[in-house]
Write a structure and sequence with these properties.
This protein is 48% helix and 5% strand. It has 22 helices and 7 strands. The strands form 2 sheets. A 5-stranded parallel beta sheet has the order 3-2-1-4-5, sandwiched between helices. The longest helix is centred in the middle third of the chain and has 25 residues, at 299-323. The radius of gyration is 24 Å and the shape is globular. The termini are far apart. The model has no long low-confidence stretch (mean pLDDT 96). The structure holds flavin-adenine dinucleotide (FAD), ligand DLZ and iron/sulfur cluster (SF4).
Length: 513
């Protein structure tokens, strides 16, 4: 076979309709997939995430071969493996004698910047194609954002509803409202019938990958036990179908709820599939709309779910590419404490933190409110360096890729972009966690106590956080009730709260730096 084109597929480009393969001739093209140390090591990926990505890559290679493509697959343990994507493209060019390389643009600045230099380094033309697996292109987002004073998700989302026609009735939103959150956000109770995600037993390929990851990454964070993720598009679709039938109808109601020992509640657990291409975001949203039109799903659930994908997922991607590589280093609140060790060990008496971190270690999953209002909220209140927080989130979740993780962490969760993304910091005392979960009942700390040893650390850190950032945050209308309360307290009371917050940090082993 005379090879003309080498098509490189990255580990998160496992969509059959990927831009780099469009129009290619199987008779003159070779598709390259390469497991490389550089991608496995650039952050401390959870071991289940590594196993998921490698197994999905191997299954995708098999699917492409079955569809008639010539696939060149390099395994991580191949003794000739150069360890980098560029090195593997260079070796494949030498093996096949291809005259050009085609690749879909990578999902993060680090690789995009590296790929811009590939053509010169490899001595062949390298065609970089836009990743069009999203509702909005980078140019679409720029067109929406340009000239706006504030880039709020809600207005982007409404524009996307109009553009796509999703959940629209003529020019109006279905059900007469854009957003049904007023009906959502209920706490959950243990007597609810809890659906469970559909599970996939590891096949021989996944078993091989699990053994390889166990042997090669013995010290990495994360359990490999009980691996049930889908690793093919068909399995991912079957899991999504089960979610639509069993859990979606109550997704809206219990979206923000947390229960000890119930990691999944009514969540879909599909972000990992969407982000590597085993599921298509557009198909997922239209499928949910069809379930609502068929009368199988209430509007608050369908709208709430579609907003997460059509709204949040597209919006954070737009922000990521618009803000540029330095977004990762924003630190508007000047938070500098190192990440506490208990983010890795779960060795803490805070029951909410322990539950979320243990669950993360065991499953490589936590739902949005666990990420935002427990582990994220704690880091925000405690003044942890947002870059360290970012590296943790990028490592520990099976769905973590920088384009989606970074704005959620630096912007939404740590307010480190100074309010570009979030209209106020997601800072909350223990009362919020107590209302939305059953964690506090099993905690050594007292969620009703405001200060002093034994009081909930979220309470002890909350007011010092607001006092510390008063110059920046006092003018925020959404925080004015808190600052009015603070204004009623005399200087002595405020100083005592600040001293108690500092003592709390010392007791938790955090700072002074
Ligand atoms: P569901 O709750 O069932 O929601 C459905 C889908 O909506 C998700 O699969 C996801 O694709 C999308 N979605 C929901 N919320 C968001 C959001 N805020 N931003 C983007 N998409 C969203 N999501 C990731 O995909 N990768 C990440 O690395 C990631 N890091 C995060 C870090 C922090 C600090 C926070 C607060 C959130 C992060 N999220 C991330 C968003 C969200 O928490 C996850 O998408 C969600 O928990 C995945 O679980 P699920 O598939 O069960 O989602
Ligand atoms: C996440 C990941 C991992 C762990 N390993 C590989 C790999 O060995 N080869 C590969 O092509 N891609 C991998 N990926 C996905 C990439 O890291 C991802 O494409 C970039 O982070 C851009 O989103
Ligand atoms: Fe978390 Fe505080 Fe509740 Fe303990 S008391 S579980 S630390 S919110």
């Amino acid at each position: 076979m005379a090879v003309e084109t080498l098509i490189l597929l990255l580990g998160d480009q496992l969509s059959l309709d990927i831009a780099s393969m469009r129009g290619a001739d199987p008779a003159t093209s070779v598709v390259l997939l390469a497991e490389v140390a550089a991608e496995a090591d650039y952050v401390w990926h959870h071991r289940k995430k590594l196993a998921f990505v490698f197994s999905a890559m191997r299954h995708h290679a098999a699917a492409l071969r079955a569809a008639g493509w010539t696939v060149d697959y390099v395994e991580l343990d191949d003794p000739q493996n150069s360890g980098t994507l560029q090195g593997e493209v260079a070796r494949a060019l030498a093996r096949h004698g291809a005259a050009r390389v085609v690749v879909t643009e990578a999902g993060e600045w680090r690789l995009r910047e590296a790929m811009a230099g590939w053509s010169a380094a490899l001595g062949v033309p390298v065609e970089l194609r836009a990743d069009d697996r999203f509702f909005a292109s980078e140019a679409d987002f720029a067109a929406w954002a340009d000239g706006r004073k504030a880039l709020r998700m809600e207005y982007f989302y409404r524009a996307m509803r109009r553009t796509t026609g999703l959940l629209m009735e003529g020019g109006d939103p279905a059900g007469g409202r854009w957003n049904f959150d007023a009906e959502n956000r209920k706490p959950a109770s243990r007597d609810l019938l809890m659906p469970r995600p559909r599970r996939v037993a590891p096949d021989a390929i996944t078993a091989d990958v699990l053994a390889m990851v166990a042997a090669r990454f013995p010290d990495r964070f994360g359990s490999l036990d009980d691996f049930w993720f889908a690793v093919t598009a068909a399995e991912a679709e079957a899991q999504f179908d089960a979610f639509v039938a069993d859990a979606l109808p109550r997704f809206g109601d219990y979206q923000d709820a947390m229960l000890a020992g119930e990691p999944w509640l009514y969540h879909s657990v599909i972000a990992l599939y969407l982000n590597v291409g085993l599921l298509d975001a557009r198909a997922v949203c239209w499928r949910v709309e069809a379930a609502w039109r068929a009368g199988n799903v209430p509007i608050n659930a369908a709208e709430g779910f579609i907003r997460q994908i059509l709204g949040w997922r597209e919006y954070v991607r737009g922000i990521y590419w618009r803000e540029g590589p330095d977004y990762a280093r924003r630190n508007a609140l000047e938070a500098h404490h190192p990440l506490p060790d208990f983010y890795w060990s779960a060795d803490t008496h805070m029951a909410c933190m322990r539950a979320c971190i243990e669950q993360t270690r065991d499953t490589a999953y936590a739902h949005h409110i666990q990420r935002l209002m427990v582990t994220g909220n704690f880091a925000l209140l405690a003044g942890i360096d947002p870059h360290a927080v970012h590296l943790w989130y990028l490592a520990v979740y099976a769905d973590a890729y920088e384009w989606v993780e970074l704005p959620n962490t630096v912007g939404m969760s740590q307010f480190a972009d100074g309010g570009l993304l979030a209209s106020k910091p997601y800072a909350a005392s223990g009362a919020y966690i107590d209302r939305m979960s059953d964690y506090c009942a099993g905690c050594r700390y007292d969620v009703k106590a405001k200060a002093g040893a034994g009081a909930c650390p979220f309470n002890r850190l909350y007011w010092p956080f607001l006092i510390r950032h008063q110059p920046r945050l006092a003018g925020n209308p959404r925080l004015s009730p808190m600052y009015r309360t603070l204004a009623r307290w005399d200087a002595g009371r405020r100083a005592a709260l600040v001293a108690d917050g500092a003592e709390c940090l010392r007791e938790l082993g955090i700072g002074p730096d």
